[in-house]
């Protein structure tokens, strides 16, 4: 990637597929960045050594794939709030279109080697349930969305629980700040008129 590619503006989000890609990329980034940065911070000077250990690498991979559906649910809820605010229309119809797209994105991935096919299937079922729950309450403030997922995410960290100390609030705040940035990016790239037609809103 050249310098001009880096500086070029990201394309607008005009259809369901582009929204699905946005949710996918940001969910993966949100979960993976938190896992790697927290692990490095906890390991301190031994981080380089620890990340070369096959056992730790395997633990990170397992945590990353288990966290991915959480990331999809978190980012999807943030996106759903923007769509409701900007597009209006029938909220249930828009949420169903978004849910279908997120599950389509999930289904593009084969079962990761780090977890079993049964667990991957269970993670999909739980993701589907979580997506349906979005429509059962009014849209939340962006910074409040991670509240219900933060503990589950923290528990996935590939660091022994005795070494985590009182770091939960650190992870919780990371999710809040990062999700606010994702929200702002989505708002900037959203082509409301085109997406209204695409989602049937």
Question: Would you mind describing this structure in some detail?
Answer:
- This protein has about 200 residues and is an all-alpha fold.
- The N and C termini lie far apart (about 35 Å).
- About 70% of the residues lie in helices and about 0% in strands.
- The protein has one domain (about 10-200).
- It contains 9 helices and no strands.
Secondary structure category: mainly alpha
The proportion of residues in beta strands is under 5%
Helix and strand run: HHHHHHHHH
Oligomer: single chain
Radius of gyration: 18 Å
Low-confidence parts lasting 5 or more residues at pLDDT below 50? 3-7
- Distance N terminus to C terminus? 36 Å
Q: Which terms would index this structure?
A:
single chain, 201 residues, mainly alpha, globular, disordered N terminus
Helices and strands in order, then pairings?
Layout lengths: L2 H5 L8 H28 L3 H6 L1 H34 L3 H17 L9 H17 L16 H6 L12 H22 L2 H8 L2
Helix pairs in contact: 2-4, 2-5, 2-8, 4-5, 4-6, 4-8, 5-6
């Amino acid at each position: 990637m050249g310098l001009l590619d880096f500086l070029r503006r990201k394309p607008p989000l005009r259809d369901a597929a582009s929204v699905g890609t946005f949710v996918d990329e940001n969910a993966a980034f949100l979960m993976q960045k938190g896992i790697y940065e927290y692990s490095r911070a906890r390991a301190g000077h031994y981080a380089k050594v620890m990340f070369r250990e096959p056992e730790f690498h395997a633990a990170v991979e397992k945590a990353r794939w288990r966290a991915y559906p959480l990331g999809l649910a978190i980012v999807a809820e943030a996106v759903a709030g923007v769509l409701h605010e900007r597009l209006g229309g029938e909220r249930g119809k828009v949420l169903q279109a978004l849910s279908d797209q997120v599950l389509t994105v999930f289904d593009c991935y084969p079962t990761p080697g780090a977890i079993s096919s049964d667990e991957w299937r269970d993670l999909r079922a739980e993701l589907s349930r979580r997506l349906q729950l979005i429509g059962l309450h009014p849209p939340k403030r962006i910074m409040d969305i991670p509240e219900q997922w933060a503990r589950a995410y923290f528990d996935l960290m590939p660091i022994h629980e005795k070494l985590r100390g009182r770091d939960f609030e650190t992870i919780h705040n990371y999710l809040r700040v990062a999700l606010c940035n994702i929200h702002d990016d989505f708002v900037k790239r959203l082509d409301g008129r085109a997406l209204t037609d695409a989602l049937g809103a």
